[in-house]
Amino acid sequence: MPPRLFASGPEPAALLRAAVPAIALCGVLGAALSFLVPTTAAAGPTVKVAQAAPVQPGFQRFAWLNAWADHHTAPGGAAAGRLDGVPRMRIVVGHLRRTAVDFGVLAEVEAPQREAFESFGREYALVSTPDATDDVVFYRRSVFRLVSRDAVTMYYRHGARTTAPVVVLEERSTGQRVGVLPVHFPASIPAAPRQKRWRDVNAGIVKDVVARAEVPMVVAGDFNQRNDILCALTSPGTGLVSPLATHAECATGRRAPIDQAFLSPSLRPDRYQVYSGPSARRATDHGAFYQLRVRLSGVA
């Protein structure tokens, strides 16, 4: 039986069912209006997309972005005048190739985009869920192999249940392992205000997954929060690190984007980059792709 992501003990689903009511209660007590909308990122250096050389074994490039669900730009969608989901995914795959990305996360993906990714990016494998709108993990087949996948229940607008894959990958050249959890928290918008409750619930679930993981973790995606989630997930009790700021600087530093990545300290993230050129602005309504380098040390 392949190694599991989580430490031994009760089944993950049972633990989450027991934990979610308590987490949700905390979220209700701390609920507040937070009108967060996707905008172009302002954090980190912006660099020109260029051909990148592969990194040495043990160091891999991780990328994340919001793929802007296909229905938004499909006929009848709110942004039907923008580029459709399939050619947008072709842009994403081209970017991953040019920047030599080895693994990563795509938030807000729908069936036509998943199919396009698998067709255009055959050097990558995709790990998704049965949800109509999905958050997925991808990895370069020549660099990683899939060790295991679990599923965790998370919550979107008004508490609608969603499923996120929790994936363990093994670097082929070294045997080092890393876990990946993609996320998409609900935004508070005029049509769906007061979603902070569910963002708080999801943050608690992320902390629980990280606490029980037996491998170093990367949690990335669209948090629809800025410095508040940066502070929450870099807190001493959670133990993750961000390429943007330390916990001591999280509230006073530069304004964070809503697309973020958090990592186990042993992964030693560096070389954080934001790509926000014309291709990114065509491919996603967030206007940016994100990338950093990690060192796979094998220590959780």
TrEMBL record:
Residues of the Endonuclease/exonuclease/phosphatase domain: 80-286
InterPro entries, per the entry: Endo/exonu/phosph_ase_sf (IPR036691), Endo/exonuclease/phosphatase (IPR005135)
SUPFAM superfamilies: DNase I-like
GO molecular function, one term: catalytic activity
This protein's name: Endonuclease/exonuclease/phosphatase domain-containing protein
Lineage: superkingdom: Bacteria
Organism from which the protein derives: Nocardioides luteus
